[in-house]
Structures are given as C-alpha cells and as structure tokens.
Amino acid sequence: MTIATSSPRRQSAFWMAFRSNRLAWLGVALLAIIVFSAVFAPWIAPHDPLQQNILHRLQPPSSEFLLGTDTYGRDVLSRLIYGSRVSLVVGFVAILIAMVVGSAIGILSGFIGGVFDRVVMSLLDVMLSFPTLLLGLMIAAMLGASFENLIIAIAITEMAPFARVARAPTISLKQRDFIEAGRAMGFSDSRLMGRHILPNMLSEVVVVGSMWMASAIRTEASLSFIGLGVPPPTPTWGGMIREGFENILDSWWLAVCPSVAILLTVLALNILGDALRDAIDPKTRVE
C-alpha cells in the first residue's frame, strides 16, 4: 500500500479523493447520528432508561413508546440511545489501546529483527489462530464481567492485527536511505522509530483501526449477549438482544431494534474505513 506523507499536496489529494466518494458521506452521516445520540443521550432520550413500570411491560411501539417497552416496562428507545454510549466507548477505547500497543510491538519487532522478531511473530500467530470472539470470551471469563475488563479483553484480542500491519512497512522503511542517514547522524533507535518510521505508516494503521472498531463493537455485543459484558442494569445493545431473545416471537422489537443499531454502526464504520483506504491508496479502488 502506498503510504501517505504529511506534505500539503498529499493531504489535498487525500481530501479530494475522500470528498468525491459519495458512499463515504453515507458512512459519515450514519456515524455522526449515532455519535450525536450517544453524546446528547440525556437530552434526547424520552424516558429514564432504568425506570421500571410493570404496568407498561411488553408494550408494542406506540406514540408514547416509539420502540415499545421491555419485560420490565422500560422504554426501548431510551435504552437503545444510552446503549450506544457503551458500544462506542468500548469500541473506541479498546481499539485505541490495541492500536498503540500493537503498533509499538510491530514497529519494535520489525526494527530489531532476528530472534526477537521471530519470537514475537510466533506469539502473534498463536493469538491470530484463535477466533476473535473465542479469545475475547476466554479473557473476559478470566477477568470477570465489568466495563474495564471488557475493554481490556477486546483490546488484547485486537492487538495482533495492528502489530502485523505495523511490522511489514517497518522492515521496508528501516532499509531506506533516510534511516541510514539518521543512524549516521547518531540518532537513537527510539527517535528513528518514533519520528521517522511511525509517521510513514500512521495513515495505514488508522485505516485499519476504523475497520477493526466495527469488529470491536460486534465483539462487545457478543460478550454482553452471553453475560460477560457490562453488568445490568446498564443498557447495552448485546444485553438488550439477550433480554429480548426469549420473547422474539411475541415482542420482536426487543431484539430487532438493538440488532439494527449494531448493523448500522458496523456498516457506517466499514464504509468509512473503505473510503479512507481508497483515499489513501487510489490503486485499491474498485471502478
């Protein structure tokens, strides 16, 4: 993949390519709506997401409850809006941690090389041999169900892809003339990696991050569905699907509404990631 630099001409070409992608704006619009709802949830949500009212239990969508109510009489729309906070925060923070730690491991492994590189890559191959959900399930089960442990579990499962992405260009870049010139001038290895190698691969890592954030949100929903996510009564999309699964035939809105929310969020992130990738490297575009 062609690595974007920080020159004004490259930045201008990037934004022109991104703006010309009409599908990209659909992803931006969907993600903006979801983020807006999460940030302003206290003002947008029509009801308290934790307030129970048995008299209103399992009511279908109506003018009072636009997406109906659950088995405890809680407003589904309000819980859906507040649940977006958990999904977005967990997805963003977990991917940010995985991006920083994984990229650092990949750069260090590719730069040092030799036995260290082989050992690190072997460990990453072991991690990649496990399905993401299965590895996250094992880690979350060992750590216990909590908001912080959920982020840690997802971050660990997503580190290996970032390390792989960062390692490959590091091996190529460390042999370039500007790295050799830096060594001749007495630059330390940390300076060469942090100020000369990292900026030349940062755009590629960010693109991967936008795509893997969708995977992190799916993993969070899956772990919440099986009871290893954020403990109730905090609303989460995966937890809402689990609660509505038993009443799927009679009260379809309980499981369908959070499922659609996950679908739209993942779709928006995937569209945005594809658009960023195409803008950075026009050769990958599908005409």
Automatic annotation (TrEMBL):
<keyword id="KW-1133">Transmembrane helix</keyword>
<dbReference type="GO" id="GO:0005886">
    <property type="term" value="C:plasma membrane"/>
</dbReference>
<dbReference type="GO" id="GO:0055085">
    <property type="term" value="P:transmembrane transport"/>
</dbReference>
<dbReference type="InterPro" id="IPR000515">
    <property type="entry name" value="MetI-like"/>
</dbReference>
<feature type="transmembrane region" description="Helical">
    <location>
        <begin position="23"/>
        <end position="45"/>
    </location>
</feature>
<dbReference type="Pfam" id="PF12911">
    <property type="entry name" value="OppC_N"/>
</dbReference>
<dbReference type="InterPro" id="IPR035906">
    <property type="entry name" value="MetI-like_sf"/>
</dbReference>
<dbReference type="InterPro" id="IPR025966">
    <property type="entry name" value="OppC_N"/>
</dbReference>
<keyword id="KW-0813">Transport</keyword>
<feature type="transmembrane region" description="Helical">
    <location>
        <begin position="88"/>
        <end position="116"/>
    </location>
</feature>
<dbReference type="InterPro" id="IPR050366">
    <property type="entry name" value="BP-dependent_transpt_permease"/>
</dbReference>
<protein>
    <submittedName>
        <fullName>ABC transporter permease</fullName>
    </submittedName>
</protein>
<dbReference type="Pfam" id="PF00528">
    <property type="entry name" value="BPD_transp_1"/>
</dbReference>
<feature type="domain" description="ABC transmembrane type-1">
    <location>
        <begin position="84"/>
        <end position="273"/>
    </location>
</feature>
<dbReference type="GO" id="GO:0015833">
    <property type="term" value="P:peptide transport"/>
</dbReference>
<feature type="transmembrane region" description="Helical">
    <location>
        <begin position="252"/>
        <end position="273"/>
    </location>
</feature>
<keyword id="KW-0472">Membrane</keyword>
<keyword id="KW-0812">Transmembrane</keyword>
<keyword id="KW-0653">Protein transport</keyword>
<dbReference type="GO" id="GO:0015031">
    <property type="term" value="P:protein transport"/>
</dbReference>
<keyword id="KW-1003">Cell membrane</keyword>
<keyword id="KW-0571">Peptide transport</keyword>
<comment type="similarity">
    <text>Belongs to the binding-protein-dependent transport system permease family.</text>
</comment>
<feature type="transmembrane region" description="Helical">
    <location>
        <begin position="123"/>
        <end position="143"/>
    </location>
</feature>
